[in-house]
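Please go through this chain and its backbone structure tokens and walk me through the local backbone shapes. Keep your notes short.
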Amino acid sequence: MTGLNDQIEAVEALGWHLDQFAVGEGQALTGERVAVICLFRRS
């Protein structure tokens, strides 16, 4: 999740704010996976 903070700040700079954040982890046949869900709302 390298750079995630920078990406969130870039979206917020456009007038949105982070309302909800969730992270899910799982394993698939090809290895571990991480899903990040960010819900933004207009300020």
Residues 26 and 33 are 5 Å apart (CA to CA). The chain has one helix and two strands.
